Amino acid sequence: MSVIDDVKQKIEIIDIIGQHITLTKSGRTFRGLCPFHGEKNPSFYVYPEQQSWHCFGCNTGGDVFSFIMKKQGIDFGEALRELAQKAGVTIPSRFEPGAESEERQKLYQINQAAALYFQSMLNSPAGEKARKYVEKRGFTDETVKNFQLGYSLNSWESLKKYLAEKGYSEKEMLDAGLIIEGEEGKKSHDRFRDKLMFPIADTRGRVIGFGSRVLDDSLPKYINSPQTPIFDKSGSLYAVNIAKEAIREQGLVVIVEGYMDVITAHQNGFNNVVASMGTSVTERQVNTLKRITKNITLALDADAAGEEAMLRGVEFENALGAEVKVVILPQGKDPDDVIKEDAQAWPQLLAGALPVVDFTFNMVASGLDLATAKDKSLAVEKLLPILAEIKDPIRQAHYLQKLAQLVQVSERSVEAALSRLKIRPRRAPIEPKPEVAQPLLSNRLEEDCLALLLQHPEIKIKDDELLPEYFESSQNREIFIARQESAKIEELRDGLDPATHEQFDALLGRSLSPNRIAQKYVEYILRLRERHLRGLEAKIEAVLAQEAESGGKDAELAKLKELGIEVSIKLREVFTQKRQRQLEQGG
Ligand SMILES: [Zn+2]
Known about the structure:
The strands form four sheets. This protein has a five-stranded antiparallel β-sheet, sandwiched between helices. A five-stranded mixed β-sheet has the order 13-12-14-15-16. It has a four-stranded antiparallel β-sheet with strand order 6-9-10-11, with helices on one face. The longest helix is centred in the last third of the chain and has 34 residues, at 517-550. It is 51% helix and 11% strand. A hairpin with a 7-residue loop joins strand 10 and strand 11. Helix 13 packs antiparallel against helix 16 (356-366) and helix 16 (356-366) runs antiparallel to helix 17. The chain is of the alpha+beta class. The structure holds zinc ion. Zinc ion binds at residues 34, 36-37, 44, 55, 57-58.
């Protein structure tokens, strides 16, 4: 039995969730106020028999691991370690995060060593210029310490010599991007010289790379570490390690562009701010934050807030399964300026954040004369493709209405225009959807499907066909999510918590027949979806039966019944698809 299964067996979901919220027994289930959305009437249920939970208010659920992950904003590995401790299960040291490949470990170490070196240089006599600069920017000693700011000497080899003395090889320095290879026989040299240094850490606080800024007005103003096995700028967020707590507490993260913006914000008590370190936020960054909060506000530059940024906003919403908000900074100012001029202007600015789609409406409408036919169709032309991207059917319908009102035509003609865009209408409600955990430890169907996906990197997982919540085991779900993000086995394995490696290797090594791969994949999708829907149906029925007995509130019951109908419609769709496949195969 794996460590993960062992932990699952030894803990009782009621005990764990009961430590976080008050649960009342209600028939075979327990109910309480959902900790994930504000509510006065409890719609959060725990199912001891399946060792799972579900909230019908925010339509989300999972097993005990996913509860802890969501409640505390931590990743799978952290949740596992916490629960293992409670269960009295010892996790073998080979599963500790430190047991990562030696190469990666070395890279974290060398970056950490460099960060300490830069820090000490800032306090050395040679660091005077940098100290003056930091002072001029208004950063306090505490801030400098908190962000581990440093200084790289105006020298070609000082870091290189220091690291060599510490026993690091030149190859390791090169791999970490701390030195640059010399051209044609020349010696390699330090990448960062005479710069203010900003160590960049991952969510666990490990230094993965550096940002740096010149101390004068020369260009380029900023230089970052290159891409390395542990650092990818488009997937990292500056200060996420420092802001994590505040983000979780406030249930909101604000993404700004630059290092200085983040530091000034934090120094003024706005601790939920992180930086994208570039003009555009990436989906990978959104995915990193998703674990901590689903409420994201983008603080955009007045110039960068173009239509492209708007379209990306909807992409992020789809990835998050939640609305993304936008604030536009005053022309020519960045958050650093805004906060320095008047710290109270910042919360005021944020209070005016608009959902990204509403914002897009304003932007498009402001440049048009909507009394004219020409501009009406222009507005539709610009907005419709954006609305077509919205996955959540309710929100999509809302904005279609809004568009119809804006241009004062019937909703039907807007809808007709939408279907001409040939976007498949999506009837399914958006993520997150619940999973149904069963007491079964081995989960053959999930594993068969995952083994197929891991051994056939050529299979492209399309949006919506296979969802993470179809995987009832958190461990399998983690592996599936990693496979969604990358089909490259090495990369995929590295991205996973070491505690899941055992399972991962077993799946990769499972012997599969080489025939009918594509068909098998479709079959797995249908079977997993069917199982997921059946489980959901059973959960709804259990609650309905109980509520009917105890006389629950009519409105709530009606909502649940509606959900039940939705589920059975989708189940019928699955049956139809299965039948069609049988007919096609002549069976
Ligand atoms: Zn809820």
